[in-house]
């Protein structure tokens, strides 16, 4: 089974900025480097919600949660845990 | 239009924000109806567009068409503010495409036509009169030019009516910002010279070879002006406090007379226009009052573009903000319609982003007044890339208006400034 990490990195590598998958690491600065902008974040939220059957509460829609692939994977895992 | 009584989404207003939302929803398979009180193409102002617009044009699939239309490419901006002349170039901020100076009738028509081709049903010459939320969504009463009314029943209404602010007016919540009570006054000139990189002034014919800068200057009295060369003419406008406008107009033979006199007494602008001809009857006036509605998303409606709040347009961010808000509304409505339990959080998320957007724009434009700390603006700002942040810091620092942005968005040590100071404009 693919890890949450790999799923996130795969999705990011498919963005129109066309960074190869080798250029995306667990701690790549996605927002600072302009790889993930406010538009792509919306699409990413839609993808994560569908893929992991989760719902993002509005207070989690903050830049820190989307800064790096690690942060995104941690967010998805956290929201996937049964309450 | 008796048979057109239902839609998943009704959009009122066919400017960039409305067309973007319409396109996004039609592409996701929803039945979308868009009405506009005007018949496009129609005149409007707001011709300077930042390079970040391209990523929205890519999403809408219109980038090639826009390139083909050959709009004037904008290389950056030159600002004269008191004794200081500064320049910023987009290429210093990691943009691979330029800004644009566009005739808005043409660009807005292209975006609306693009929505139409994506399956949006577009009806012109119709305006929205009132709306009433109900269990399943919203009912909207619309009227044609003869006053004939119909009722449209939709799941969601999107208010994209610009300064008319349809939803806020019905709710009585279009709050004027007392710090910004301005009037815009503008006209179109043939044969104006223009400012290019390095502050070098060139004849109009040089535009294809040397891309223009948007030229902005403080006026002798309170206020500022813009100078935006386009494909055939140059848009020149002044933005002055409403009290000053009333006093000055009373002392001149006509509004046009006041406009030309102001252009003539403004350093550099008078030289740019020395051999230019004002197009007959092209002078327009618009109340540019800044305002914010109490609510930009509620049961059965979303508000986008200028209808969701407007501030002094000095930083050319209006169109990009409109494109973003249209995209965001389409996203939020889709998320709500796919899962009803996400309706509330989609509405909150939309409102949070829009509030942040307004507060950030206000912090940038507010002249010399402490905008106060804003968590919303900070969150919105921190979704920008480093390059975009640096562009905003640099742009704000060109006027005396940077203090509020720094307070709101950090960079106290100003390490991100990329701007050049110029001694003078060079007339060749």
Q: What is the percentage of strand-forming residues of chain A?
A: under 5%
Largest sheet, strands/sense/barrel of chain A? none
> How many strand segments of chain B?
25
Look at the structure and give the mean pLDDT of chain B: 91
Q: What pair of chains forms the biggest interface?
A: A-B, 20 and 26 residues
Would you identify the CATH architecture of the largest domain in chain B?
2-Layer Sandwich
Structure summary, number of beta strands of chain A: 0
Structure overview:
The complex is a heterodimer of chains A (83) and B (428). By secondary structure, chain A is mainly α. Helices cover 43% and strands 0% of the residues of chain A. The two termini of chain A are 23 Å apart. The termini of chain B are far apart. In chain B, strand 22 and strand 23 form a beta hairpin. Chain B is globular, with a radius of gyration of 21 Å. In chain B, the strands form five sheets. In chain B, strands 5, 6, 13, 16, 17, 18, 19, 20 and 24 form a nine-stranded mixed β-sheet that branches. In chain B, strands 1, 2, 8, 9, 10, 11, 22 and 23 form an eight-stranded mixed β-sheet that branches. In chain B, helix 10 packs antiparallel against helix 13. Chain B is 33% helix and 28% strand.
Structure summarized in a few sentences:
Chain A has helices spanning 4-13, 38-51, 69-80. Helices cover 43% and strands 0% of the residues of chain A. Chain B is globular and about 65 Å long.
């Amino acid at each position: 089974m693919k890890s949450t990490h790999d799923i996130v990195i795969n999705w990011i590598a498919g963005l129109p900025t066309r960074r190869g998958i080798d250029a995306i690491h667990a701690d790549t600065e996605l927002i600072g480097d302009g790889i993930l902008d406010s538009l792509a974040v919306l699409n990413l939220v839609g993808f994560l919600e569908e893929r992991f059957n989760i719902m993002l509460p509005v207070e989690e829609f903050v830049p820190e949660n989307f800064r790096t692939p690690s942060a995104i994977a941690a967010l998805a895992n956290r929201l996937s845990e049964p309450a | 239009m008796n048979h057109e009584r239902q839609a998943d989404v009704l959009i009122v207003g066919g400017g960039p924000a409305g067309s973007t939302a319409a396109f996004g929803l039609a592409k996701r398979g929803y039945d979308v109806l868009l009405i506009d009180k005007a018949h496009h193409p129609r005149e409007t102002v707001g011709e300077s567009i930042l390079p970040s617009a391209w990523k929205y044009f890519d999403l809408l699939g219109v980038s090639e068409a826009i390139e083909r239309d050959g709009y004037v490419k904008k290389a950056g901006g030159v600002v004269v503010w008191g004794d200081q002349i500064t320049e910023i170039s987009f290429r210093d901020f990691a943009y691979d495409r330029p800004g644009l100076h566009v005739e808005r009738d043409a660009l807005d028509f292209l975006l609306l036509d693009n929505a139409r081709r994506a399956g949006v049903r577009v009806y012109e010459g119709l305006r929205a009169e009132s709306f009433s939320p109900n269990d399943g969504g919203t009912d909207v009463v619309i009227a044609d030019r003869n006053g004939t009314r119909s009722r449209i029943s939709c799941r969601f209404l999107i208010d994209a009516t610009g300064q008319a602010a349809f939803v806020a007016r019905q709710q009585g919540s279009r709050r004027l910002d007392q710090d910004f009570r301005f009037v815009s006054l503008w006209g179109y000139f043939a044969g104006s010279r223009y400012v290019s990189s390095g502050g070098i002034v060139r004849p109009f014919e040089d535009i294809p070879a040397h891309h223009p800068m948007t030229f902005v200057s403080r006026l002798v009295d309170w206020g500022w002006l813009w100078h935006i060369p386009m494909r055939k003419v140059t848009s020149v406008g002044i933005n002055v406090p409403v009290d000053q406008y009333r006093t000055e107009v009373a002392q001149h033979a006509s509004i046009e007379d006041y406009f030309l006199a102001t252009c003539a007494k403004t350093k550099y602008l008078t030289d740019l226009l020395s051999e230019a001809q004002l197009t007959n009857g092209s002078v327009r006036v618009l109340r540019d009052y800044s305002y914010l509605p109490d609510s930009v998303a509620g049961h059965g409606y979303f508000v986008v573009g200028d209808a969701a709040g407007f501030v002094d347009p000095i930083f050319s961010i209006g169109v990009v903000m409109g494109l973003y808000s249209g995209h965001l509304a389409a996203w939020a409505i889709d998320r709500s319609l796919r899962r009803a339990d996400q309706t509330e959080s989609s509405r909150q998320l939309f409102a949070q982003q829009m509030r942040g957007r307004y507060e950030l724009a206000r912090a940038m434009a507010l002249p010399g007044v402490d905008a106060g700390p804003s968590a919303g603006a900070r969150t919105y700002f921190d979704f920008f890339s480093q390059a975009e942040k640096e562009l905003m810091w640099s742009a704000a620092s060109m006027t005396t208006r940077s203090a509020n942005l720094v307070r709101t968005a950090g960079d106290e040590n100003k390490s991100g400034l990329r701007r050049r100071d110029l001694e003078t404009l060079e007339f060749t």
